[in-house]
Amino acid sequence: MTTRPMSRPLLAATICAVMTVGLTSATATAEGPLAAPVDGASGIGDPYWPLDGNGGIDVASYDIRNSYAFEDKRLSGRTTVELTATSDLRSFSLDFLLDVSKVTVDGVRADHVRTDGHELRITPAQPLAAGTDHTVVVTYADHPASYSYAGENNWLASKREVVTMNEPHMAPWWFPSNDHPQDKAIVDVRIRVPHGREVISNGELKRRTVGKKSTTWHWRADEPMVPYLAFFAAGDFTIARGVHQGLPWLVAVSQGLSADDEAASMRLMRKTPKVVAALEKDLGDYPFSVVGGLTTSLGVGFALENQTRPTYPAVGGSYTSLVVHELAHQWFGDDVAVQQWRDIWLNEGFATFMEWRWSERHAGRSGERILADYYQNVGPESDFWTVDVADPGAAKVFDSAVYGRGAMTLQALRNRVGDRDFWRILRTWLREQDGGNGATEEFEELATRVSGEDLGSFFTAWLHTPSKPARTADNGLS
Predict the structure, then answer these.
(1) Rounded-to-integer distance, Cα 183 and Cα 14, Å
(2) Mean pLDDT (whole number) for 383-409
(3) Which CATH number belongs to the domain containing residue 245 in this structure?
(4) Which of 199, 227, 255 is the last residue of a domain?
């Protein structure tokens, strides 16, 4: 995600205390029922947002089938969640805000109740044994714009267009989920809209089914994704597609923009496949099977790295660095997601650094020059240096220091260990964490292992100390 060139309000961090219930698994036997099934915890354990995610379950896939009415901004539908119980469960939760009319587990109606405003607590007719697979179907209808969570009002819509893009939360406004980066799943999306409207989502368009008054658009991504990275946009869009070096691409631009803005945005979106090809030279193969982008006409103040198809505000045709940032996230943030939200610099610092790398590859300032300019121009008294980059706190997960100082850390590391070892570190990180999650401590360990250098004081200065690093060779500064 990037907040440039427009600013985005800081996300509120006030959360209700989590009602945690122990997750110790009881022992099931073939002769009888589970001895002591428990209620799965209402959160996965992230200290920034304790209600995000849920205990006792691991989701494999979401089959989302929604209808959207533009006039009254009403969303209705049914989502099928395939999951595995990781504990013996009497009940479990999904993160969801909308009004639910029915829940079934393995075809049998289940009790459900709203708790903490954000949690859909489900009690199946029979407890779930640890290690068993289950099908949960949730039916709902509501007006997403009427809900907020963690200080966020995330439904972005007009009477002509809607787009579900935000971070760190978006899924609970349009499908029930285990909403935390630790639980990736396959996402299959069907959205029904009135005739004449287009729907864009992640992955590949599988089918467009035309009915008497409406059209259903079916999109599916081949690779598992974090829930907030799933999206759909519906409205009037101009679409372009093709194949570049074997990689299929599809981009879309809202027709709600002026003619000049629409043309400029399409020029920017069409740069997507070539930007990916350039990033591959440093990072290795693009991690997904398709790529693309979407520009909305709605008043969003940021771009977001939705998996396979980032979403953008209208910023003109020359803002290539924004596309670089969001496509770099396909490696850093999407393929390798954060372990906890405190690790957000592994997304934003890395994507910002790849903007610097793009600059030096395209006759702009080098990464070393940008680092030096940052260091020289930001005085030691600046709030920029007071953020603990490796643990910024919920209120500062998108602080400029997470982006800027995060990128500075990487360029300083490059200076410290040399170009060869630096790119070996990044590629090894992507290879070893491929498709999973990463934490700051893991990156620090890997950098030390690959470079063969003691980098403890380096990372302490750059990531864990709320003050300006000293200008020393040990800190990658000269």
Answers:
(1) 23
(2) 97
(3) 1.10.390.10
(4) 227
Enter the tokens of residue 452. Answer: 């063969």
The per-residue pLDDT for range 14-44, each reduced to its tens digit, is 333 333 333 333 334 344 566 689 999 999 9
Q: Which residue range(s) make up the domain with 426?
A: 341-475
CA–CA separation, 414 and 368 (whole Å): 9
Task: Note the pTM of the prediction, 2 decimals.
Answer: 0.92
Q: Distance of CA 438 to CAs 42, 222, 253, 347, Å? A: 23, 21, 33, 10
Q: Which of 381, 445, 374 is nearest to 406 (CA)?
A: 374
pLDDT in tens, 77-108: 999 999 999 999 999 999 999 999 999 999 99
| 60, 168, 227, 276 from 308: Cα distances, Å | 19, 17, 13, 11
Greatest alpha-carbon pair distance for the chain in Å reads 72
Measure Cα distances from 295 to 15, 73, 186, 257, 314 in Å.
32, 20, 24, 9, 6
What's the mean pLDDT in 373-392? 97
Residues 144, 190 share a domain: yes
d(CA 8, CA 303): 10
Give φ, ψ of 284 to 5 degrees. 90, -175
Residue 383 main-chain phi, psi, to 5 deg: -60, -20
Render 261-307 in DSSP notation, one character per residue.
HHHHHHHHHTTHHHHHHHHHHHH-S-SSS-EEEEE--S---SBB--T
CA angle 232, 100, 183 (to 5 degrees): 55
Question: What is the four-CA torsion angle of 326, 328, 330, 335, rounded to 10 degrees?
Answer: -140
Residues 6+ apart with CB under 8 A from 130: 25, 28, 85, 86, 87, 88, 89
Q: Do 78 and 137 fall into the same domain? A: yes
- CA nearest 287: which of 354, 353, 223, 355? 223
CA-to-CA dists, residue 455 to 342, 403, 442, angstroms: 21, 21, 13
